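Exercise: predict the fold of this chain.
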Amino acid sequence: MTSKNPQQLSNISYSRVIHLSHRIDTNIPTWTGDPSVEFTSVAKIQDDGYYLRRFALGEHSATHINAPNSFYSNGTSIDQYPASSLILPAVVINICKQAAVNADYVLTISDIQTWETEFGEIPPGSLVILYTGWQEKWLNQKAFFNQDKYGKMHFPGFSYDATEFLITHRRITGVGIDTHGVDSGQDTNFTINRLLLERSLIVIENLTNLDQLPPQGTTLIIGILRLSGGSGSPAGIMALF
């Protein structure tokens, strides 16, 4: 991961701070094959004088960040991310209307160009957040994964062409989305994840509160668990704007 010069971060100013992470509970949607979320009481105030729980969940559950070693054996693990790589400027591209009509919709280069016509060219170093409206389906696992009778999932994501354009021509630092995958539901090969993580770029999934963000001018603070050798981590993400 590339470390930033602290001087690049010294001019951050903001008037609002919001959470972009979902609450973690036992009923959150989890990917098929992932471990379930569990909470176990270890100590109770009435018995032990204090309250403590043990929790368990997958590294790619809840709002989370994926690390390169989740797909590449020689890739960076989550504990190796420099702290400065986790504070990023962000832009938000809204495709809610398209996704409401077509659950398989993917971001296109044309969508990016339309956004840039209104807001200006995406600055280098930005993290591009795709707001699809899927955050509203979070507590309905059936609707969130939207599987058809053949078991194929249908939810929006990034297209290969648009992602490659953002990497090559806009020099982004990564992407985020409010679905369970930056890859659309029909892409079972994790093409977009592989494309980004091969280059050690940021991948964040299961974001929320994206309706509260402006299209540009947001700074993200991505809080990770520094899991030794971790393939990713549940993330506490705050947006400042």
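Check your answer against the key: The chain has a mean pLDDT of 95.
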